[in-house]
Amino acid sequence: MEIWLRTNARALLFGMVPPALFALMGVLLLVGLPGREPPDWLRIVGTGVLVLSLVVLGALAWQIRQPRMAYRPGKLLLWLRPGGPIEVPLEVVECFLLGQAPSLLPGKRQRESKSSALVVRIADRAAEWHQQEVKPQLGQWCDGYITIRGTWCEPLNVDVVNRLNQRLAEVSRAPSPQRGGT
């Protein structure tokens, strides 16, 4: 698998701060203050807080490792919903465009903000790929356009889009086992 677009590691690392603080609090509840032993019920609460925090930290660390978009021969892989990637046949992907989309960040001030977006154009002839259910915070998929919100992927700019289009052209021209190539 060749990663074409990474997830926004900075946002996920920032999201790890609260669970890390809760993990620290769990440790303090578990071991107590220097010279003072905590009661058993406080140790149980501390253990629960620590375990839950470590689970959340592990889930966030896993998401950092997951790309937003990748290539496998004959397929464009998109991680836009929970679970495994959506595997789009490469022959229906026409191009990548740079656009804007609502950021969908929480909070009153952020509600109307826009972020860069990567738009994937799907061929008109591939009607079965014109609509898919995706997580709205990660993107939108309708009418043959896949919009990947820049909020949750690596920074987007013209150079990134040009690199993606160049790589799409290279792999599209290469012989593929699915198309009868060698």
Verbal overview:
The protein has two domains: 8-65; 91-179, no CATH class. Helix 2 (17-31) packs antiparallel against helix 3. It is built from four helices and eight strands. 19% of the residues are buried. The protein has helices at 9-15, 17-31, 40-65, 158-173; strands at 2-5, 69-72, 75-78, 86-89, 93-102, 114-122, 139-142, 145-149. It has a four-stranded antiparallel β-sheet with strand order 1-2-3-4, with no helix packed on it. It has a four-stranded antiparallel β-sheet with strand order 5-6-8-7, covered by helices on one side. The mean pLDDT is 88. It is α+β, with helices and mostly antiparallel strands and 182 residues long. The protein is 35% helix and 24% strand. The chain starts with a strand and ends in a 9-residue tail after the last helix.
The share of residues in helices is 25-40%
How far is it from the N-terminal to the C-terminal residue, by CA? 19 Å
Secondary structure tally: strands: 8
User: How much strand content do the residues show?
Assistant: 15-25%
Which structural category fits the helices and strands?
A: alpha+beta
Number of domains: 2
Describe the global form. Answer: elongated
Order of helices and strands: EHHHEEEEEEEH
Task: Note poorly predicted spans.
Answer: none
Q: What summary fits the major beta sheet?
A: 4 strands, antiparallel
Q: Mean of residue pLDDT? A: 88
The quaternary state of the protein chains shown equals single chain
Strands side by side in the biggest sheet: 1-2-3-4
Number of helices: 4
The radius of gyration over CA amounts to 21 Å
